[in-house]
Amino acid sequence: MVSTQEIVLDRTQRIGEGRSAEVFVDKSGQILKLYKAKWGKSLAEKEFVATSFAHSQGLRVPAPLGIIERHGRSGVLFEHIDGKTVLEHFRRNPVGMLGALRQLAHIQFGIHTIVNAPLPNQQDALRVQVSRARVPAWLKQTTLAVLDRLPDGDNLCHGDLHPENALYTPDGLVVIDWEKSTSGHPTADVARTELILRSGRTRFVNAWAKAADARIRARLADFYVWTYCRLSGIDRRDIDAWRLPMIVARLSGQAAPNEDDLQAEARRLGHHFAHLI
Asked: Which of 19, 110, 219, 246 has its Cβ near the most Cβ atoms within 10 Å?
């Protein structure tokens, strides 16, 4: 049951911030994720439902305690999990990061064994994102044509699984940030994770450092997909087939520092599939 609780924000401490939300710890130690956007109420409700479902299925997620309304903003109250994100914990430990990515692939495979989640359809969500993407009309049409040829499904999909959305604890990894979760096909979900691993945000500004970072990211992404494919028996090519829709869908959100690279890759792939329209 969704509950509404009153939180006094000046008695909380902000401990994190992302593109769409701020994260606070309140005086009792509970975690408040407060959305920034005007559509935050729908995101909060979706995250509460998705996390509640994941928790009910025995997945290691923070227990959701209620939906918060405060000063015109909406959020979700969670139990506190003591741990840093996988990215923070292993930032200077590449061997440890490989082990954590192996664990994350096992977790994602486990997530995908759960079906009939009360969540939006993955294909429908992708089509909305493609329609809003910052790309030419021909590329949107091509991407939708590619989507028509890709499988649908009813497996639980996180939609945004990567090292910043998993907490490292002594008892194992805990998956957070379920607001983008859907009911869909596992290969699409893994393709989304690969895209983030391969071309997510970088802290580097120097060209040489960026190039080295890109090579490391590519190897980590390949290792992750290889691990998942070994676990699941899925062919790597079935994951690669989602690359164009995932890139174009990504271009519907806030512009990232690597926007130009994503635009170029989307156009390159789009020309490859242009015969479909």
From this structure: 246
Beta-strand relationship, 172-175 and 166-169: antiparallel
DSSP 229: H
* 160-188 per-residue burial string, b: 16 or more CB within 10 A, e: under 16: bbbbbbbbbeeeebbbbbbbbbbbbbbbb
Q: Say which residue the tokens 């990504």 belong to.
A: 250
Q: Are residues 188 and 259 part of one domain? A: yes
Q: What is the pLDDT along the chain (277 residues), one digit of tens a residue?
A: 455 555 555 557 888 888 788 898 887 789 999 998 777 889 999 999 999 999 999 999 999 999 988 878 899 999 999 999 999 999 889 899 999 999 999 999 999 999 999 999 999 999 999 999 999 999 999 999 999 999 999 999 999 999 999 999 999 999 999 999 999 999 999 999 999 999 876 454 455 556 677 888 999 999 999 999 999 999 999 999 999 999 999 999 888 888 999 999 999 999 999 888 8
Counting the structural domains of the chain, the total is 2
pTM score of the predicted model: 0.91
Domain boundary among 18, 43, 78: 78
Tokens representing 248 are 């174009």
CATH number at 113 reads 3.90.1200.10
Question: Which residue, 175, 209, 206, 180, is CA-closest to 195?
Answer: 180
46 and 155 fall within a common domain = no
- Domain housing 135: 84-276
